[in-house]
Amino acid sequence: MTSESESASHPAPVAEPGPAPDSSTEPAPRLVVGAALVADLTNPSGVLATQRSYPEWADGLWEFPGGKVEPGETPREALHREISEELGCGIDIGRQLANPDSPDGSWDLSSGEHNTGLRMMVWLARPFGEITLGPAHRDARVLTAAELESVEWLPGDVQILPVLRAALGGR
């Protein structure tokens, strides 16, 4: 039986970035990771979005839970750690929701004049264990493809919605 989880024997569609070179004249973008949490990695029909409670500029906005990749971590290791910290559960990681215009599939989180220096990699992920919202989130909601625009997303996450909608089968 094949599965899209990270334990599958087929290779990931997009290579994970390695460590940033020390000799770069420009600082390397900081990588963050996010999970589009679904009940079924093979045939997802809805995604669990989380609503931020802080910082002030993000209070009330919805997001893919996740966070920054720490030195020495791979993006997938960071995703496991971040989801455990934020939601208290484990995850099986599925396929990447890749940016088709980026070699590593990451998304630029800079918007307009605000250069955050952040890039984000997002994967479908199936949670296991009880989900418990930590202090960073005030609410969580399962959204179908048709409901994705019913909440106000963090600005950087909005660009990922068309790829997520396609993964949800447009349902």
Automatic annotation (TrEMBL):
Residues 1-31 are annotated as: Disordered. SUPFAM superfamilies: Nudix. Keywords: DNA damage, DNA repair, DNA replication, Hydrolase, Magnesium, Metal-binding, Mutator protein. It catalyses: 8-oxo-dGTP + H2O = 8-oxo-dGMP + diphosphate + H(+). InterPro entries: MutT-like (IPR047127), Nudix_hydrolase (IPR020476), NUDIX_hydrolase-like_dom_sf (IPR015797), NUDIX_hydrolase_CS (IPR020084), NUDIX_hydrolase_dom (IPR000086). Its EC number is 3.6.1.55. Residues 28-171 form the Nudix hydrolase domain. One of its GO terms (molecular function) is 8-oxo-dGDP phosphatase activity. Its cofactor is Mg(2+). GO terms for biological process: DNA repair; DNA replication. It holds the Pfam family NUDIX. The keyword Protease does not apply. It comes from the Bacteria. It is an enzyme of class 3 (hydrolase). Belongs to the Nudix hydrolase family. This is 8-oxo-dGTP diphosphatase. It comes from Actinotignum schaalii FB123-CNA-2.
